[in-house]
Amino acid sequence: MPVVPRSFFSRPAEDVAPDLLGCLLVRDSAEGRRVLRITEVEAYAGPLDPASHGYRGKTPRTAVMFGPPGFLYVYFTYGMHYCINFVCSPDEECSAVLIRAGEIVEGVDLARVARSGSTDRDLARGPARLTKALGLGREDNGRDLCDGGALTVLERESSDFTVATGPRVGVSTATEIPWRFWIEGDRTVSAYKAHKARVRPSATPS
DNA sequence: CGTTAGATTCTCT
DNA sequence: GAGAATCTAACGC
């Protein structure tokens, strides 16, 4: 299967996102090869999208999102999780696709070690689980997906599935924008959860 | 199967 | 200082 070229990513994320469903993310490491079949994604735009990390302009964290397409954007959240995005749009513009879930189709043994305690179905069922199952982290931020290196995306073998769309998961703003895309009926798609503001006990009650 | 609380620290205001 | 593009365990049915 052909490697996805940089021009594929040089479009708005909402156009790239559905085209990524069914594609394979190939991750080579010292331990061996892991391959993920992508089943669920979300698109995030730039300064006009209040749910995007790029909403308030370029910062040290989001610099990669404003750079050229075809690179990996890794962010840290909830004090303990990493998630991965594919940067889209031409250089200087900001958009990206969050890889939310997938099925491990090669290197299941390695993914099981990385996510001990998980069932095979749940290995990459969720953005942080997926990142951990593939052994990716902060150090992979900014990696090139199109240089033929150890992290590449292969075109899908078939488009024999239905694409479903809906609101983005865990997002508290712009909930009317249906920029979540998934393969209908696929068991590895994560469960939808609306954002819920968390309440922390106050250390200084009045 | 479903729902819910708590964990834990980075990032930008 | 507030809140976050989440996960897991624990509970109830």
Automatic annotation (TrEMBL):
GO terms for molecular function: alkylbase DNA N-glycosylase activity; DNA binding. Keywords: DNA damage, DNA repair, Hydrolase. It holds the Pfam family Pur_DNA_glyco. InterPro entries: Formyl_transferase-like_C_sf, MPG, MPG_sf. It comes from the Bacteria. GO terms for biological process: base-excision repair. The keyword Thylakoid does not apply. Its EC number is 3.2.2.-. Belongs to the DNA glycosylase MPG family. This is Putative 3-methyladenine DNA glycosylase.
